[in-house]
UniProtKB/TrEMBL annotation:
Its cofactor is Zn(2+). Binds 1 divalent metal cation per subunit. Residues 19-281 form the SMP-30/Gluconolactonase/LRE-like region domain. The lineage of its organism: Eukaryota, Fungi, Dikarya, Ascomycota, Saccharomycotina. InterPro entries: 6-blade_b-propeller_TolB-like, SGL, SMP-30. Substrate binds at residues 112, 114. This is Cell growth protein CGR1. The active site is at residue 222. The keyword Metal-binding applies. Keywords: Metal-binding, Zinc. It comes from Lodderomyces elongisporus (strain ATCC 11503 / CBS 2605 / JCM 1781 / NBRC 1676 / NRRL YB-4239). GO terms for molecular function: calcium ion binding; gluconolactonase activity. A divalent metal cation binds at residues 21, 167, 222. It holds the Pfam family SGL.
Amino acid sequence: MSTQLSASNIFPEDYRGRLTEGITYDYRNNTLLWVDIILGEVHRISLDDLNKHEVLKWNEQGESIGFVALTKDLDTVLVCGKSGLAYGKFKANTLEYFFKYPLTEVEQKRLRSNDGIIDPWGNLWIGLMNDFHVTAKEGEVKPEGKLLRITPDLKVDVMIENTKISNGLAFCSKGTKLYWTDSLNYTIWKFDYDHETNTLSNKVPFLETKKVYTDVESPEPDGMVRTTNGEVYTAVFSTSTVLHVDKEGQVIEKIHVPAERCTCVTIGGQDGDHLFINTANLKLDDFDAKIDPTDFFGDLGGFLFKYKSDHNLKGIKKNFWGGDV
């Protein structure tokens, strides 16, 4: 099955970013949130009133934002910056660190936050990877990253080491299965997870994108979302598609997007029937390039896209960060 999106699916029409990521839906107030990693921005827009588009932004040079998560407070979000965790408060328009990752001095310079998830117990799982200035200088992403689990009382465990690009994550509803995206190995892995002992085991490939995109040089699985019946939607970078697979990892549908670099996807809307997609601009590495939100020709990277299904997509509601805010 194949579904084709077009410029008519751009949402909202007046916004275009550089490297949009981490899209998430808050059912409590019918809002959509996402980040622009490179610009260091958190966005929140009301689906009831598109004029209510709020933006939080780092002012410090060299900052970035890899992931944003919901908290128990509607006004406050958990933000994963370059070097640690911050709280973003929309009414006060503030972004302030409250915890720095326990890294060596070298790691602090070379790593940044990428994608993450809040598990059913309120813990944060966050992937770290080489920062932009490192890959620009060295021409590659090195296996220096890691996947961290951070509890609400800020205890840190390294769950997976020596990663290149730790990306999209998902838990099953009970939290006993973890899906982890290993982008540069073109694989989404599935693990058994024991919360009581905090251990991962029985690692098996759930989806290998090289086997699906045999004619694409680097079909990198990126941000993802899982449904209550075990299906997965994953953005696949450099393929202009979101891939929809069943609980066994078999392809159900390819959703074609008029942007080569699809980065993340989520399910939302009050009826649970919308798919929202992040993309990245082709000029994301050219900091002098102007990203034009009025240009609807050619590659449409940097825009967000909305696809309405004819049925509820059975998305799993996002968990809240368990820390005090």
